[in-house]
Every structure is written in C-alpha cells, then in structure tokens.
Amino acid sequence: MTTTQTPLTPVDEAEAPDGIELTPAGYWAARAALGAGGRGRRGALARWEVLLVVLLGGVLVLNVLLSPYFWDAGSILDDTSTFMEVGLMALPMTLIIIAGHIDLSIASNGALCAIIFATRFQAGWNVWAAAGLALLIGVVAGVANGLIVTKLRLPSLVVTLGTYALYRGLANGLLGSGEVSSFPGAFAGIDTRYLPGTHVPAPLVIFAIAALLVGLLLHTTVFGRYIYAVGNNVDASRYAGVAVDRIVIVLFGLSGFFAALATLVLVSRLQTARSDIGTGFELQAITAAVLGGANIFGGEGSIPGTVLAVFIIGLLGNGMTLGNVPAEVQTIAVGALLILSILVPSLTKRARTALSRRKGGGRSS
Predict the structure, then answer these.
(1) Third-level CATH fold of 13-351
(2) Above 80 in pLDDT, residue 219?
(3) Main-chain phi, psi angles of 103, to 5 degrees
(4) For 312-349, what is each residue's pLDDT tens digit?
(5) How far apart are CA 313 and CA 324, in angstroms?
(6) How many helices (H) and strands (E) in the chain?
C-alpha cells in the first residue's frame, strides 16, 4: 500500500504549545519528531515480538505438560473462541495506548451496547437492526470519551474511569439484574460456525480480519504514523500541523465500535445478555496490549505484538483450566507476565544506557 505525505504547515503563534520555539529550526525539529513516527523503535519491537513467539511456544509446551488433552488442533481452534472478544478490544486499546491515552470504559461501553441490542430485540426489533444500533451507540459513546478528553483537556484515565461507571450503570439501569436470551439461530451460536471447508471458528476469523485491518491502519498509513507521533511528542505534533484532537477522537470512536462488536460476539456465543457482561475485559485488553509491546506512556507498540500476547494469555488460561489449575494461580500467572513485560524492556534499556556511557567514558579518557 502506498501513501502520500500530507503537506504540513506551522500553526499560528497563538496555537503553538508552550516550550515550542516558533522558528524555522523549531518547525523542522517538530517535523522530524513527527516523521520518526516510531520507526526508530521498530528494531526493538521486532526483537520483543520474537521473544513473544518464543513465549507462545513455551506456553504450548506447558499446556501439554499440564494436560494431555490440550494438544488437539480442533480443540485448540475451538478454545480460541473463548478469548477473541478480549482480542477485539485489545486492538483499539493498542492504538489508544500508543497515542498516550487509555480507555478504561471499553468493556462498560460494550455492556451498554449489548443491553441496548438485547432490549431492542426484546421489544420486537429485527435482530440485525438491533445489532446495527448497538454498533452505532458504541461509536457515539467512544466519541463522547474522546470529546471530553480533547475539548476539556482532561486526562483520559480520569475521563474513562468516570464513563467506566457511567456506562455500566446505564446498562444496569436498562435491564437490572435480569437477562435476555432466546436469540434467533441466525445470530446465536457464532462459536459453532466455521470457515467453509475448515475447522476455523467464526470468532477467530472475525478477529483475524480485524487485526489485519487495524495493523494496516497503524503500520502502513500516514494516520498510523501520526498515532506514533502523537504518543511520542504531542506538542511537536501539534506544531507540525497534525490534527491531534481529531486523531484522539477517532481512536476513541474506534474503541467504541470494537467494544460493541466484541460484546455482540460474546452475546452470540453465550446466547444471553446481562448488564455485567464483559466485566474485567478492559484490564485483560490493557494487559494484552502492554504485554504485546505497547508503552503505557505512549509512542511504542505494534498490532502483531498484541495479537501474539492475546494468544499467549488466552491459551495459557485455557491450558491451566484443562490442568485444573486454580483460578487464583491463573490470575497470578497473567499478572507475572504483565510485570515481566514491563520490567524486561526497562531493565534492558537501562543496561544498554549504562554500557554506552561506560564506553563513552572510556573513549574520552
């Protein structure tokens, strides 16, 4: 895919952020920061993805040791359906984290969409019309997050923590402690449908297509380069002419769309909708994104890394379940993986910095 660079012009004096010098040198420095777009870190990310492949292989070996019933291709493929919803949420979460933000409301937004879908269907709507409305509501709720973050200049952590409670509360208010089920066969049981001629379940196909599209958006387009630039230096990006606010709003809208899509897949698989559906999925999505290489401070991350992390976490959980490992131990294992994913790159970076300083000191003497 070929892309063309959109011409950039310096912003007006009144719009320039504090600390950015309005000189030709300052402008071209900002352009350089924008053009970097994370490319300087691709080598490090590639190395991390290789480590994730090794880790995935280790998880498969561990699962075989835990349970002899794990190593069956059909069963493994079927088991992927149990964590594809988290995978769908992890994709936009990766983009948002790369841009230097966070979305704690993604699962609550999905729950609200699921309840709106279920109640509209219960009221007599066509199931696909109700699903379309749910997707629209997801986008609107996501865009609302983005507008509050950008227009009021509030931290996304605080904003989405508030809407995390708001959206879940609305879902509970609409349905209470009840549930909606008895969906038509055309919608229900998505995990029992397969790619024609294969044993690849439909949720895995949906996730693969979504990952491919989001990966192309992030890694092959100017918009994707802007996402990296915003996460690396938001002030320089503004000065270089990037519509930072618009990018952030689009990313939160995309998060809302995937939140709705993921919970519709979940409702189809479970064949029931409750207001507590998807509880905790936001933390699992963040874990997958960070384990996949996304820097929680922005500017780094990749979709291939997130995809690998989704399978590592999902297959590890399935293998430990087959091996009758207690849920508490499973939680500890995933938490340890997350901590290691943060510690290892940090310690490696410090070691390289110390080594380069030592070499530099030796040359100067």
Answers:
(1) ABC transporter involved in vitamin B12 uptake, BtuC (1.10.3470)
(2) yes
(3) -130, 95
(4) 999 998 888 888 888 888 888 888 877 877 787 777 77
(5) 17
(6) 14, 2
Return phi, psi of residue 222, to 5°: -60, -40
Contact 19, 235 (CB under 8 A): yes
Segment 72-103, tens digit of pLDDT: 888 899 999 999 999 999 999 999 999 999 99
Query: What is d(CA 103, CA 97) in angstroms, rounded to the nearest whole number?
Result: 8
Name the token pair of 56. 């995935």
Look up tokens 């964590």; give the residue: 83
Distance between CA atoms of residues 32 and 26, nearest Å = 10
Element (H, E) at 323: none
Distance separating alpha carbons of residues 254 and 43, to the nearest angstrom? 28
Both tokens of 262, joined, read: 């993921």
pTM for the model stands at: 0.86
Mention every residue, 6+ apart, whose C-beta is less than 8 A from residue 194: 200, 201, 202
> Residue 182 gets which letter from DSSP?
-
Q: What is the largest CA-CA distance in the chain?
A: 82
Neighbours of 77 (CB within 10 A): 15
Which residue's structure tokens are 């590592």? 312
